[in-house]
User: Which sequence fits this backbone?
DNA sequence: ACCGTTTCGATGCGCTTGCATCGGATCGTA
DNA sequence: TACGATCCGATGCAAGCGCATCGAAACGGT
């Protein structure tokens, strides 16, 4: 057998490089050559790790979603009162809004993929699945908070979850345009959640 | 003097063609050749109408924003009670959310340009100016509605306007993903506005 | 120690892109 | 009617793209 290299590690390394490129120059700014150069590998290596560019991009998207999920769970675990559904809800949504440099890059990449999903059904499917999972989680949190008396009893968890997610995405866009500061976005989110509270 | 052709009309014609292409295939799917073919003119004509592709795209964006503005004003004028700030507010926001085929195309193009603006400061400037104008209008409507007693007195017009715009943009994204129906989006918007009403 | 097998990095290819260029058609003028 | 200035549409061009291909290098089995 010939020597083995760490394929999975290389995939991650390339994915990170592509992520950076997309965050800086957008989706069409991420070429195979640039990705290879940024990752410090040859172009052939990129081709061997991913059968096609589309697969590479899908991997990058999945990898980013995984990172966001990890950060959300981390934020929930590190919160003062992890058991409270309301706290978990706030951390979940706050984990999506970019509050610092790295997550701003995430938001940029998210927007780039979102634009692609709007015209490419294949890409839309991936995004939609992610959103369905997120909406389920948020709806569950809202329902739990409602049942425990933290939020008003007349809110519909599913509808409210979708509305909250929409608001979060919209805040992301405003942030990327530079019309919002991260603090203002977080404040808007907080304000919205506060309006759900039971009196 | 040689014969004159309708330059401005041709610009509009090409802009409409580019708009359709972007709505169908995204920003990078709009090439000069395809634009010329779709508009039914030669490629040279496109080059003479717009000095560069960037200028053409900026014109397309401006043209679309103008169309949206026109539709909003039209909706306000056609509403049952044009004088009511609350009605105007609802029509303004509803004019942004895509409720039918043509405005879905608008939303697609909007998202495409939004993604570009996230990585291109030049494009971000254009978008930001548009949003500032929209935010001013919405804030004014909210303030008017508040002062006339239609909405609760404890809402901050500027903050609320930004939040409403963010929600609208988020709904647009969800719509494009196919997670929302236009009716559900409109319902969510209505629900949110209803929550602002004075009891 | 040798060789077959497998993986590596580099180069080539066909294609498309935005933009520049050029001959020919067009119209006012004398 | 002949001319010259002007504008039109088609073609050319250099660059960049994704992907295919290829010789060389690196191992394990015998």
Assistant:
């Amino acid at each position: 057998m010939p020597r083995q290299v760490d394929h999975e590690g290389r995939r991650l390394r390339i994915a990170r490089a592509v992520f950076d490129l997309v965050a800086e120059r957008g989706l069409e700014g991420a070429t195979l050559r640039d990705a290879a150069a940024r990752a410090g590998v040859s172009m052939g290596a990129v081709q061997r790790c991913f059968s096609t560019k589309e697969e590479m991009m899908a991997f990058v998207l999945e990898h980013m979603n995984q990172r966001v999920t990890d950060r959300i769970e981390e934020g929930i675990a590190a919160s003062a009162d992890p058991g409270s559904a309301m706290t978990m809800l706030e951390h979940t949504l706050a984990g999506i809004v970019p509050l610092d440099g790295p997550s701003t890059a995430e938001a940029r990449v998210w927007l780039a993929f979102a634009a692609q999903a709007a015209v490419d059904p294949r890409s839309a499917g991936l995004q939609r699945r992610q959103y369905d999972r997120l909406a389920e989680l948020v709806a569950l949190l809202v329902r739990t908070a409602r049942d425990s008396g933290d939020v008003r009893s007349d809110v519909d968890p599913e509808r409210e979850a979708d509305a909250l997610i929409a608001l979060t995405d919209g805040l992301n866009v405003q942030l990327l345009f530079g019309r919002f500061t991260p603090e203002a976005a977080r404040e808007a989110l907080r304000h919205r959640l506060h309006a759900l509270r039971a009196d």
